[in-house]
Amino acid sequence: MRKSFVHSAFVLMTAATINRIMGFVYQAIIFRLVGPEGIGLFNLVYPVYILFIVVATAGIPLGVSKLVSEEEARGNRRGSYQILWFSVFLLTISGSVFFLLSYLSSSFLLKYVFVNKMVQPVFLCLLPGIFVVSLSSAFRGFFQGLMNMGPPAFGQVIEQVVRIFIGISLITLLLPRGIEWAASGLAAANVLGETAGLFVMLLIYFRKRPYYGKFSLPCLEKAREILQRLFCMCAPITLGRIAATVMLSVDSVLIPLILKKAGYTTSEATVFYGQFTSVALTLLYVPSVFTVSLATSLVPAISEAVAQVRSGVIRSRTSEAVRVTLLAGIPFTAGFLILSSQITGAVYGSPQSGGLLFILALGGIPAYLQQTATGILQGLGKPAVPLKNMIIGSIIKVPVLYALTSNPDLGISGSAYAYTVFFFTAAGLNLLSLYRLTGFRLRFVNNVCKPFAAGSAGAFLSSKLYGYSYGFTGNNAVSVCISLVGGFLVYFSLLVVSGSVTKKDFKRIPFLQKITRR
User: What torsion, rounded to 10 degrees, do the Cα atoms 26, 27, 29, 35 define?
Assistant: First the structure.
């Protein structure tokens, strides 16, 4: 049975929330074990690794999700299975090829691209993940196209559990050999976790094969048709993801180089980059547990409405997605602005990273809206639009990044300001494109003014609660938890009282449906 996009987003969000909580505990532990330099070593090579994965998968998983959704809307279940197995065939080949290419190009990258040469074992440990992720992405796209988010969500949880257990074990074992070997253990744990997630999805699929269908490759003519449809859909998606990953890869090289030009040593530049990416950016994207889940669910949901030529449904789903993104992002952004240093200190033991989080939080709402808008535009069959908007934002960001980061008085803070400029630019262009394509509208007072007022009230209470609780307990972590929970409760209560959240919204949450019917 196919579910609504809100239900699907809720399933993914639940799994992502569990993963995020476990991930915070994991990251807090490894940050204290290997420090910002060890995390920085991992993050210097991770964008390049992701770039290989993006090219290997070529946007096929998202294309599979969209095409399967369209086949299901037409009632063609057999076509859905053929799309799955043809994509498995393609991704097995591409994953193998790019795994070999990445290994053969490792010497070149280590010599000419990576700033810190200690990353060699870290990069090599990551490479097998290219094949694993390529294969698992085919099944993830298939389940998402069916709007059955249970298998990929459960796979993500198992993936995180395995990553945490093996990661802490390997880091503890390898740390005496040097910081680069500890970071290599972190990389190996990442790949083994992804392997566990793939195994879980395969197990679920084959246990329920009578429902999901038997192995069936399409005939040559059908294969050509699927390949053509995938190419038309995936080419701009792939270019978009390549552009996004290249941007991260360039930043992982450019930021440390600019910091060195500003007078910092290689070690200091690596430390600052680790604080920026693994502390500030990671915390900023906490709400992405919902926005990414929402965007993932929107692709098949919007595609289904497009296939059925239901413009009213497209417009209402777009409006609802933007509204929910605002409701989810406002309390987090308020907390980051009010208690930035306290939060980074409580989670990572790095209060000095709070200034970076504060700057990034200025662009928090646009960052979350950009993710949701991208999912909607891809579902509309317009993946080139967010690509174009992201490129424009990046063109503006790079000179700002260089000018501000090279200023010794700003340093890594200049990078945070440049990212904030990028968030506003890309999100603004995406929303403008959405309005032109769908004509979506928000009730300004109810959907914008009231949530922002409630968020401001919650933030004010959080700041007061932190002062009182810290004076009473003397414990930063406990005080942060008390203040954030109190602020969120005030925010949520004000939303309900003001009518921004209604009983209808509760009915969309699966485990609350029975309660709201009473």
Answer: 160
Helices (H), 288-411: 288-307, 311-338, 340-348, 354-361, 364-379, 384-405
Tokens of 483: 């203040």
Are 116 and 226 within one domain?
yes
Distance of CA 515 to the CA centre of its chain: 32
Same domain, 70 and 130: yes
CA distance 312 to 174: 57
R_g over Cα of the chain:
23
Length of the chain: 518
Query: What's the pTM value of the predicted model, to 2 decimals?
Result: 0.69
Residues 253 and 165 in one domain: yes
Contact 314/276 with Cβ under 8 angstroms?
no
Q: What's the domain count of the chain? A: 2
Same domain, 430 and 506: no
Range of the domain at 518: 446-518
**Interval 372-426: pLDDT, tens:** 888 788 777 787 788 889 889 989 999 999 999 999 889 999 999 999 999 999 9
* Token pair for 128: 């097998």
Place of tokens 């990572």: 348
Give the closest residue to 129 by CA, choosing from 197, 70, 60. 197
Same domain, 234 and 351: yes
Say yes or no: 482 and 392 in one domain: no
